[in-house]
Design goal:
- With 303 residues, this protein is mostly helical.
- It has two domains: 146 residues, no CATH class; 148 residues, Four Helix Bundle (Hemerythrin (Met), subunit A).
- 78% of the residues lie in helices and 2% in strands.
- Helix 5 runs antiparallel to helix 6 and helix 7 packs antiparallel against helix 9.
- The protein is globular and about 55 Å long.
- The termini are far apart.
Length: 303
């Protein structure tokens, strides 16, 4: 029980933080509260704290089964605060902001949500070691580089279809990229005959591969919907006809790479190291198409 005192303490500190901010809400509107840069920084710190506690527990892997339920209990209050950050401005202002910082907040929220829901159906042990640090870093970047706060009304159905499919696809591909990193790590340890307690606590390599390709199929369908809706409804979504830009180039490149991976998986039974490396290459193109283009336009060029 004493081993999990840090998680219990973190849960208690998180509850106190939420109660403190709830008191602040009495003195300010929801929009003013949620626009505070400090809230982003708070969430980044909380995810970083949870990341440190998880890593500390994994260092003792093999001594006892990993307590997923206690981890999710510690994650819950942080996730609720993250959910409030996303949904309250959306419901109050009836618009969806898609600036650089807003996109990072949305994608990170969807990644945590997918991880939390997936934990009830899959053995995702090991994924949290990469997920929480990435979420903490993404929220910190959103705090440092908020970008241009561009908002679009939720009543614009073509826009909501395109953005929803894009964000969900990006979140799924981000998780599959983390799974690809796990595959490369476990594969390397197996080939070097270094079966430590840390590695042994991971799910079987074939199980990680299965989850990665299931996420790939779902993400590819969503990315296809995003590409088609962004092309067909370009004028309704962006206010201008579809144009051939660097964002389009990297987006189509990522779609083609993912299509090749799925085709090779079906015809050549691609798996292991090669499939994981191609997954990371495809995600790098997708990151350049979405986050990379927003960073250049909104932060470097100030558009």
């Amino acid at each position: 029980m004493l081993k999990w005192f840090p998680f219990c303490a973190a849960f208690g500190r998180t509850k106190r933080c939420i109660l403190h901010h709830a008191v602040c809400l009495r003195q300010a509107s929801f929009a003013e509260f949620l626009n505070m840069n400090g809230l982003l920084l708070l969430l980044s710190v909380l995810y970083a704290l949870l990341s440190g506690l998880v890593w500390r527990r994994w260092q003792r892997a093999g001594s006892a089964p990993y307590p997923v339920q206690r981890e999710l209990a510690a994650l819950l209050p942080i996730m609720l605060l993250h959910t409030a950050l996303v949904w309250i401005p959306l419901t109050q202002q009836q618009s969806l902001a898609v600036g650089l910082g807003d996109a990072l907040v949305l994608v990170s929220w969807l990644m945590v949500l997918l991880y939390g829901l997936g934990s009830f159906f899959y053995s995702l042990k090991g994924l949290q070691l990469l997920l929480y640090p990435c979420i903490a870093a993404a929220l910190l970047l959103a705090w440092i580089f908020p970008g241009r706060h561009a908002a679009y009304p939720v009543s614009n159905l073509p826009f909501m279809l395109h953005v929803s499919a894009s964000l969900l696809a990006y979140s799924l591909f981000a998780i599959t990229a983390l799974l690809a990193v796990l595959i490369l790590f476990v594969n390397r340890q197996l080939h070097r005959h270094r079966i430590s307690a840390f590695t042994a606590a991971m799910p079987p390599l074939l199980s990680i591969e299965k989850m990665m390709f299931q996420g790939l199929w779902a993400g590819f369908i969503l990315l296809t919907v995003a590409v088609l809706s962004g092309t067909v409804f370009a004028e309704a979504v962006f206010g201008a006809p579809a144009a051939f830009t660097h964002k389009t180039v990297f987006g189509m490149a990522s779609w083609l790479i993912y299509a090749v991976i799925l085709f090779r998986r079906h015809t050549r039974a691609w798996r292991g190291k090669k499939a994981a490396q191609w997954m990371l290459a495809a995600f790098a193109c997708l990151m350049l198409a979405y986050i990379g283009s927003k960073f250049v336009l909104e932060v470097l060029l100030g558009r």
